[in-house]
Amino acid sequence: MTKRFSVKSTLSNVLTAILAVAVMLLVIEALLRVSGPPTHRFNNQSEEYYTNPRNYHTPLRIEEGHIIYGLRYNKSPKGYRLPDEPVSDKTGKKNAVLGMGDSFTYGRGVRYEDIYLSRMEQSLSRDGYDVSVKNSAICGANIDEIYETYSYESSVKRYPVVIYGLVLNDFGKSHAIYGTDFIDFNNAGYEFDPLRKTSSLYNLICYLIEERRLHHYTIDAYLRQFEGKNAARNFETLRQLNRDVKLKGGTLIIVLFPLIYDFERYPFHGIHQKIADFCDREGILLLDLLPAFSNYKAEELWANPTDHHPNEIAHGLAAHELHGFIIEKEVIR
């Protein structure tokens, strides 16, 4: 009798414990649905978004009951970004400026008129400077492809001012990186996991694992590219670009974009310093945007929660800083 009672009592205690854990998990789930990290659908194949937090992007279509947001881009055959609307002829302008870079300068996620080069051109024109800017940035371009862009464009036309919007990944990355919270492949990593949308607790666990793993993994991937032979080769390309610009009577300005990531504990100060030291030795004008961007939280400058390219606010900051820099250095008269 005592043994049966003991078994029943143990079973009752186990069931009570299981029920308590289940209730606790349900409470945690309910709380996380209110205040937990968001879930996103990810798409690495296009510049499209499933949310529109600033009402900046426009609805493109309905897909499986979801509104898909984004922008429609006009592109040249070479992949350059073209104005959204026809513009007046610029051929008679005195100061021709060539802009180069990757998707940051191309303006992924922002309207053409909000790209920092477009805003800079507008503000300089308002101040009475006779200037025209050609944006020859190409999404995904690395430093070698940017050098090729200058070689081609300078063979067609003379540019007294050349602006290169440099992003840290222009030097490449040492190995492939996958994950939804990666600071470069913002929309990528895996197909959207339905369970992360179903359970906020499961989503939190995945979020914390990914964040911890990718934080260290991606920092290491970037730091490696600014060491050893890879850094030497890329800095030599940058040195040659500056020489070519000078030989053709121009001035090179490097606009250094920080990765829009955790400005309070920004892990790439050392890389910025290496670039600054190089530019100082080579006599290259350098505008580092990290101080201006650091006045904001990183997420305030993202094009979208799943796209960490600079948004229109970040481009406005870059245009303001570049405008003042050009006037201070008397690059354009």
User: Given the helix and strand composition, which structural class is it?
Assistant: alpha/beta
What's the name of the CATH homologous superfamily of the largest domain? SGNH hydrolase
Assembly type: single chain
| CATH third-tier fold name of the largest domain | Rossmann fold
CATH class of the largest domain: Alpha Beta
Main beta sheet strand tally, sense and closure:
5 strands, parallel
CA(first)-CA(last) distance: 102 Å
β content, as a range? 15-25%
Strand order across the largest sheet = 7-6-8-9-10
Give the uncertain stretches in residue-range form: 177-191
What gyration radius follows from the Cα positions, in whole Å? 25 Å
CATH architectural type of the largest domain: 3-Layer(aba) Sandwich
Residue share in helix: 40-55%
Mean pLDDT: 84
Shape: elongated
Extended strand count:
12
